[in-house]
Specification:
Elements lengths: L1 H34 L2 E2 L2 E2 L5 H6 L7 E8 L2 E5 L2 H9 L1 H4 L8 H5 L7 E8 L2 E5 L2 H8 L2 H15 L4 H6 L11
Antiparallel strand pairs: 1-2, 3-4, 5-6
Length: 175
Amino acid sequence: MSNVINKSLRGALLSLSLAMAVVPTLTEVVQAADEVNIVEGYAVHGYDVVAYFTEGKPTPGDDRYTAQHGGATYRFASAAHRDAFTANPDKYAPQYGGYCAFGTAMGRKFDGDPQAWAIVDDKLYLNLNSDVQARWKKNIPGFIKGAENNWPLIRSVADASLEASPPAGVTLGAQ
């Protein structure tokens, strides 16, 4: 009888150990989803991030050319753009996971509109819309500095939580 109990106990402990081993993986998945702005299954609303650098304009991607990076799927207008991205994703991926650069400077995570964009110091930044981008452009270096301060503090936090209780150290606006 005690042999049966020991086997059952060992089985339960093994199951618990396996379940605990999965917990960090689930947490990482949730964090990755919060770290990249994904809309309708794609980063940057499915726009080709390489095209901002090579074509100088927003270009919709194509489902035939996709790549994974940072827990998100990116679409591209061509295989060449996809290959350039996979060779150096950090060069092309938008700053702050594709969330609004102005919003990040304000300690929040707002959608980044692919039409409201800028390349500054060879980095891609998105803003919520053209009105917000106009405010951001009045002090780009200051807002980037504020966003750089805030991003490590907010990157893995859902925006609803940021609204309710911003982390300590978050700044508001340009620095």
